[in-house]
Amino acid sequence: MLGPGGNYAHVFELDGKAYKLFLAGPEILPRQTRDGRKRVFKSQVEAYQLLFRDPWLQNHSATFYGVCTIEDVIGGDGNSLRDDYLLDCCYALELLDLGEIDPITGFYMNEAKLVWLKHGHLTSYYENHVKDAEARFKMLGIATMDSSVLFYRDPETFKFIDFEIENYY
Ligand SMILES: Nc1ncnc2c1ncn2[C@@H]1O[C@H](COP(=O)(O)OP(=O)(O)O)[C@@H](O)[C@H]1O
Ligand SMILES: [Mg+2]
């Protein structure tokens, strides 16, 4: 698994790609429900599909390889974990190099949350490139509230992940 595992999905590395597979539970009202997670999945897929309208922005987002249905998820002890997941709510992305985990902060070296770049200890990286990308997402109606930026230090190679259509129904 890549990252610590969130409330909506787990991201797995498989055959050189990253697969974001959404969780079936637990039910936490109002939004973190089975239906809520399905909606977030759809909204993220639609957001990736909208990027063709802005080739520059598409180039600064993880490449989207489409949706897929997972047959099974096998745990470390060999048991099936399929009931934990919405097996038809999965999309594949280009696998980005997260780098090592920084022993001091516990975060991946190459990844920063957008909010840290805007308001945190990394604001010097926000000006220009990250800010431009944020404005372009906004123009497409894509929300970047929870986004991470990979390779955030580099205006040429930085890439966004984790965004969705704003106010999706
Ligand atoms: N394409 C990718 N390449 C490498 N790592 C990724 C990729 N997508 C996600 N990750 C890792 O998985 C974590 C969780 O993914 P994310 O899409 O942010 O899920 P969530 O919606 O649960 O926050 C990210 O913070 C990152 O560390
Ligand atoms: Mg995230």
Give the topology.
Layout: E1 9-14, E2 17-23, H1 34-50, H2 55-59, E3 64-68, E4 85-94, E5 111-113, H3 114-119, H4 126-139, E6 142-143, E7 148-150, E8 159-161, E9 164-165
Antiparallel strand pairs: 1-2, 2-4, 3-4, 5-7, 6-9, 7-8
The structure holds adenosine-5'-diphosphate and magnesium ion (MG).
Adenosine-5'-diphosphate binds at residues 2-3, 6, 8-9, 11, 18, 20, 62, 93-96, 98, 108, 111, 146, 148, 161-162.
Keywords:
169 residues, alpha+beta, 4-stranded antiparallel sheet, 3-stranded antiparallel sheet, 4 helices, 25% helix, binds adenosine-5'-diphosphate, binds magnesium ion
The low-confidence runs, each spanning 5 or more residues with pLDDT under 50, are none
Count the E strands.
9
Tell me the number of structural domains: 1
Helical/strand content category:
alpha+beta
Strand order of the largest sheet: 1-2-4-3
Number of helices: 4
Computed Rg:
16 Å
Q: Could you report the average pLDDT, rounded to the nearest whole number? A: 95
Any idea what the shape is?
Answer: globular
Ions, cofactors and other ligands present here are: adenosine-5'-diphosphate, magnesium ion
Strand content: 15-25%
Cα(first) to Cα(last) distance is 29 Å
Residues in helices, as a percent range: 10-25%
Order of helices and strands: EEHHEEEHHEEEE
